[in-house]
């Protein structure tokens, strides 16, 4: 069951400048940073609030580490902006299977490693009314 907005992924050209914008404008501080080589991103997670399922909601700022990554290609075509939304679940495997059964393309056969040790998969944007959609089970949930 999807129980929270886990994060909104925002593609940017310069992570440090974008982090500074969110700090100076809204007062949001960096909760976590990492490089995910498999996904080709350097990212900063800004925690916005805790959620009633024991998780949290974040803004995820994403800078590509290579031009041929998903975020690199998207930035070249669209410029900066909202890249994806992510729903949190205690069981990404079960939710991905259920959604696949409804005819939506799930991009990975098995969930991969996401931010902060989470397990993630993606739904094809063309099957989700133009929205690249991620499913996340956080490390504390698995
Ligand atoms: C591409 N499209 C999008 C989109 N990316 N539509 C909405 N939102 C996006 N973010 C559209 C394109 O405009 C195009 O439509 C069509 O999908 C095919 O795109 P493409 O440019 O030809 O690129 P593909 O097909 O090679 O790849 C698209 C696909 C890919 C969604 C399959 O980006 C992917 O595998 N994404 C999942 C992984 C990912 O995004 N990783 C980065 C975040 P038209 O109409 O022009 O044909 S990593 C992350 O977030 C992790 C670290 C975490 O949360 O923990």
Automatic annotation (TrEMBL):
It is an enzyme of class 5 (isomerase). Pfam families: Glyoxalase_4. The keyword Metal-binding applies. Keywords: Isomerase, Metal-binding. The keyword Isomerase applies. Residues 4-138 form the VOC domain. One of its GO terms (molecular function) is methylmalonyl-CoA epimerase activity. Its EC number is 5.1.99.1. InterPro entries: Glyas_Bleomycin-R_OHBP_Dase, MeMalonyl-CoA_epimerase, MMCE/EMCE_epimerase, VOC_core. It comes from the Bacteria. Belongs to the methylmalonyl-CoA epimerase family. This is Methylmalonyl-CoA epimerase.
